[in-house]
């Protein structure tokens, strides 16, 4: 942070709403840092400060800030041919083939331009093919800035979670607590023939990291089958991050009808996608009758970046590298917490991590899951991780900001300002970054 960021924020405030183009970027107060450039696993601000970056663009940057030569080369040669055409290109087909080959439930895709657009289109598809209107979502889940899911409360009294969403829209959304089989069963008993889909992140990534309890997704799967609803996995965060190229669904072991993707599948460029069986996804226009379109969809630059990123991840064993570094990081952070703040918990899976903390220490937060155990009964720490949004909401947001955001930022470590979002290890990080981060974490935690 420094005078150049402060000056730019001043200018930004007069021409951009809130000074930013995505609300999460306005923190920390009194001004956010403005970025000069990325450099491997680091980010450099306009005042020349360097930070080890675990925000990683909120997830898309699996490889870090420096694109490997083959990715950069593919992107540059696309740009050299012209930015986009409004007509199909080979690279869209190649990326779709790659995704269909690696993700078990996906035969056919439609690419769009953001995770939000993917979930909007998936919900429209589910409504279109079932002829029903209601959508079940998880409390604490996030599916982008879209009308059907910016809803809070419970299935009895859903309310818009922001101004601008009509109450009549919110009434079509049924929020249920994640991991609570009884509630979702009751909601299906009451509304079974009105539910178009259940939309769920296979592992909650926007509300701490919350793993599914054993059997939860199987229950959702059978409720959907029994009642003729679609199961939609929102893999915008987890896709090509958790479970490697098979995505989180390969770990969870349940096949959704539809999957939404975003972030990594575009290699750092704007992207979203909806995938599923050919029969379902062909319900989009022009082959079907659920309208879907987009000027920039399947953008050749994005498609090349996504394709070469995923090919690189496959060829270079990127997932072993990032997952084992994140294991080390979670273990190191857990050791620090055991010494200084045992009421806090480090959660995560594969290359995703997060500290969850609370003053009260509900029983479900005792101990720490460092293994990404997905709450399986054979995990030595089974039963000690957060299980739903309620556990996470008990976390102390203020403490996150003061200690982990400001404290870690002062130490040169960039974490999400928002205490609920996940942090990511990338391929450009190395053992030294992890050691330095754990040492910084210890200094910050011990200074409380
Ligand atoms: N779904 C999930 C699970 C997400 O985490 C996000 C964004 N973080 C979205 C959808 C929306 O994606 P986008 O911001 O690209 O619109």
Automatic annotation (TrEMBL):
Molecular function in Gene Ontology: glutamate-1-semialdehyde 2,1-aminomutase activity; pyridoxal phosphate binding; transaminase activity
Record-linked PROSITE patterns: AA_TRANSFER_CLASS_3
Keywords: Cytoplasm, Isomerase, Porphyrin biosynthesis, Pyridoxal phosphate
Region spans: Disordered: 147-172
UniProt xrefs under InterPro entries: 4pyrrol_synth_GluAld_NH2Trfase, Aminotrans_3, Aminotrans_3_PPA_site, PyrdxlP-dep_Trfase, PyrdxlP-dep_Trfase_major, PyrdxlP-dep_Trfase_small
Catalytic function, reaction form: (S)-4-amino-5-oxopentanoate = 5-aminolevulinate
Pfam families attached to this UniProt entry: Aminotran_3
Positions of transmembrane segments: none
Entry EC number(s): 5.4.3.8
Localisation: Cytoplasm
Cofactor(s) listed: pyridoxal 5'-phosphate
First-level EC class: isomerase
Pathway assignment: Porphyrin-containing compound metabolism; protoporphyrin-IX biosynthesis; 5-aminolevulinate from L-glutamyl-tRNA(Glu): step 2/2
Gene3D superfamilies associated with the record: Aspartate Aminotransferase, domain 1 (3.90.1150.10), Type I PLP-dependent aspartate aminotransferase-like (Major domain) (3.40.640.10)
Family, per entry: Belongs to the class-III pyridoxal-phosphate-dependent aminotransferase family. HemL subfamily.
HAMAP family per record: HemL_aminotrans_3
PANTHER family linked: GLUTAMATE-1-SEMIALDEHYDE 2,1-AMINOMUTASE, GLUTAMATE-1-SEMIALDEHYDE 2,1-AMINOMUTASE 1, CHLOROPLASTIC-RELATED
Database matches in NCBIfam families: PRK00062.1
Protein name: Glutamate-1-semialdehyde 2,1-aminomutase
Species assigned in the record: Halorutilus salinus
Gene: hemL
């Amino acid at each position: 942070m420094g005078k150049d960021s402060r000056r730019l924020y001043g200018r930004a405030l007069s021409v951009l709403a809130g000074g930013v183009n995505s609300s999460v970027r306005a923190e920390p107060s009194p001004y956010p840092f403005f970025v000069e450039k990325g450099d491997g696993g680091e980010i450099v601000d306009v005042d020349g400060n360097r930070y080890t970056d675990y925000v990683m663009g909120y997830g898309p940057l699996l490889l870090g800030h420096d694109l490997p030569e083959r990715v950069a080369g593919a992107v540059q040669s696309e740009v050299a041919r012209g930015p986009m055409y409004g007509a199909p290109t080979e690279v869209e087909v190649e990326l779709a083939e790659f995704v269909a080959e690696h993700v078990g439930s996906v035969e056919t895709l439609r690419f769009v331009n953001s995770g939000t657009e993917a979930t909007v289109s998936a919900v429209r598809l589910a409504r279109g093919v079932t002829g029903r209107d209601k959508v079940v979502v998880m409390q604490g889940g996030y599916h982008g800035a879209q009308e059907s899911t910016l809803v809070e409360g419970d299935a009895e009294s859903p309310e818009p979670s922001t101004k601008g969403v009509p109450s009549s829209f919110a009434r079509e959304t049924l929020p249920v607590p994640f991991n609570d089989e009884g509630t979702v069963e009751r909601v299906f008993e009451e509304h079974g023939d009105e539910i178009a889909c259940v939309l769920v992140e296979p592992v909650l990534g926007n509300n701490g990291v919350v793993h599914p309890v054993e059997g939860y997704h199987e229950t959702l799967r059978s409720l959907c089958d029994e009642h003729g609803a679609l199961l939609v996995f929102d893999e915008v965060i987890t896709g090509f991050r958790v479970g490697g190229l098979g995505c989180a669904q390969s770990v969870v072991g349940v096949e959704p009808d539809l999957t939404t993707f975003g972030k990594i599948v575009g290699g750092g460029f704007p992207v979203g996608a909806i995938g599923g069986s050919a029969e379902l996804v062909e319900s989009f226009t022009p082959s079907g009758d659920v309208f879907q379109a987009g000027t920039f969809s399947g953008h050749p630059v994005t498609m090349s970046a996504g394709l070469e990123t995923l090919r690189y991840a496959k060829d270079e064993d990127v997932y072993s590298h990032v997952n084992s570094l994140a294991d080390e990081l979670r273990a190191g952070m857990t050791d620090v917490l055991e010494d200084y703040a045992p009421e806090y918990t480090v959660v995560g899976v594969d290359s995703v991590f997060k500290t969850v903390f609370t003053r009260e220490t509900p029983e479900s937060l005792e101990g720490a899951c460092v293994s990404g155990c997905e709450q399986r009964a054979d995990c030595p720490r089974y039963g000690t991780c957060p299980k739903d949004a309620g556990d996470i909401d008990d976390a102390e947001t203020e403490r996150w900001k003061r200690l982990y955001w400001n404290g870690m930022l002062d130490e040169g470590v960039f974490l999400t300002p928002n205490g609920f979002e996940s942090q990511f290890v990338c391929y450009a990080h190395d053992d030294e970054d992890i050691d330095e981060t754990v040492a910084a974490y210890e200094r910050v935690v011990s200074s409380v």
